[in-house]
Design goal:
six-stranded antiparallel beta barrel; 6 strands; 45% strand; globular
Length: 111
Amino acid sequence: MTTSPEHRIETRLNLEATIFLEMLSDQTDILMCNSLDLSATGLQVLVDDEIETGSIVRLCIDLAKRDPIYLVAEVMWVRPDHKEEATRLGLSLFESDDIGAWKELVAEMLN
C-alpha cells in the first residue's frame, strides 16, 4: 500500500528538523537527513540514499530546545527529488514508547 500526499489525514507542519534514520537490517546503517514536513502520524524526509518501500526504520528526531524523540516508522513511498539531487521518503509512524510524546508535541506546535 502506498500513501500519496493527496491521501493525508493529519495536518502537516512544514518544519525542518534533523533526523537520524537507522535501518533495521543485517548491518546497522545510520543516515542523517532532514524533515520536509511532519505530522502526528508521519514525516517526509530528504535523504541522500535510496531506501526501499516497506523498510522499517528507527528515527531519532532532534528538534531545537527539545529532548530527542525516538520513533519507529515504515517507508511508505520513495520519490526522486531532482532539484535537491536526493530522495524523498514518506514515513508512516508506528505505535511505540515515544509516540504519545510525539503526538503531544505536534499538537502543541499546531496551536
